Amino acid sequence: MEREPQAPDAAGRALEEAVALAFRVLQLAMGVLVVLFLLSGLFRIGPHETGFVRRFGVLDPTPLGPGAHWGWPVVDEVVRVDRRPRRVVVRTFDLLRDAAAEVRGEAPRREGGLDPARDGYLISGDANLVHVALAARVSVRDPAQRSLVRAVDIEPVVAALLERAAVSAAAHRGIETLLGAGKTDFLADVKAELAAGLEAADLGLGVDQIDLERDLSPPPQVRAAFASVARAGQEADELRARAEAAAARRRSQGSVEAERRRSEARAAAERLAATASADRARFAALLPEWRAQRRTLRERLLSKTLTDAVDGLGEVFLVPEGDLRLRLERDVAELDRRLQEKVLAEEESAGEDEEER
User: pTM for this structure?
Assistant: First the structure.
């Protein structure tokens, strides 16, 4: 028998090999597509961002920190919340300023009345006008809540709330307080009002700080008058401060002087008490002798007193009672002898009188 040709079998095997190769290529392509599909779920959260995943339209409240993350493609939607602070400036209450004059450092000038269509202003509690530009720095407090309203442009909302807060805070103060020492309290009230407004708006934002973009100032038409009032107030404060300092110095000096005099008085009182106590003790010791021999004690005390009085003197003259006659001689030895004899005679006479008693 003749063998049949093998060509059809070879063609069949080639076809099978081609189909198998195509199938393997298709499998590889499908694997690559699956990998690419899964890789498409990779995303990155920036260093200043907080991320959230919305799956089938439902927000997952779990925050995602900075770095790489993965979510299901198509099914998950990534929501990024920028946590960087935002600065919103409000110039509604400021004067319209010329750029060239600003560069030259010139203050705006106005004559006549105020034009509300051109210049902004705040009304104080005492119905005066003041100009100011404010800046608010806000940041994200609740990233999850902020992600729900991320489509809302926060600058117009914050600006409107800041304007309302400034009007309310200024209405509770007089012009002197706003231009003087009450600026800090004014800014604190503006911050509190703005924070309350943002909380009521439920934007997930908070207030970090309120600054004066341009300081509070009176209208240009009355700037000189307000400057004079401010100078007068400063001079009054300086005079008051000097008067208080002088009063404090006087009080301090008076306290020192009073303490010194009290110390001297206490020392003098102590000395007087000590002297009185010593005299009392001495008199108490002499009392028995005084009662027993009064004249003798008197003469002895008199003699001691005279001796103490003339101690250290070169010459002593005793003047008797009655007429005084002075006899001046160069040699006084005879006079001294006579005086001594007289004193001895008086002492002997005093002793005899005491014995008779």
Answer: 0.56
The H or E element containing residue 28 is helix 7-39
Provide the angle, in degrees to the nearest 10, between the axes of the packed helices 154-171 and 183-201.
140
DSSP string over 30-94? HHHHHHHHHHTTEEEE-TTEEEEEEETTEEEEEEE-SEEEE--TTTEEEEEEE-S-EEEEE-TTS
Query: Phi and psi (nearest 5°) for 272?
Result: -65, -40
Residues ≥6 apart with Cβ < 8 Å to 67: 44, 45
Say if residues 200 and 145 touch (Cβ distance below 8 Å): no
Contact 291, 284 (CB under 8 A): no
Residue 137 has pLDDT above 90, yes or no: yes
Helix, strand, coil % in the chain, rounded to nearest 5 = 55, 15, 25
DSSP code string of 104-159: HTPPP---SS--TTT---EE-TTS-EEEEEEEEEEEES-HHHHHHTTTS-HHHHHH
* CA distances for 60 relative to 54, 71, 145, 148, 179, angstroms: 6, 12, 12, 11, 50
Domain 85-98+117-218 has CATH 3.30.70.120: no
pLDDT reading at 330 higher than 60: no
Extents of the domains making up the chain:
38-81, 85-98+117-218, 237-292, 294-312+327-357
Residue 8 has pLDDT above 60, yes or no: no
pLDDT at 159 exceeding the cut of 50: yes
DSSP 6: S
What whole-number distance in Å separates Cα of residue 121 and Cα of residue 118?
Answer: 10
Helix (H) or strand (E) holding 185: helix 183-201
Q: Is the dihedral of CA 296, 298, 304, 307 positive or negative?
A: negative
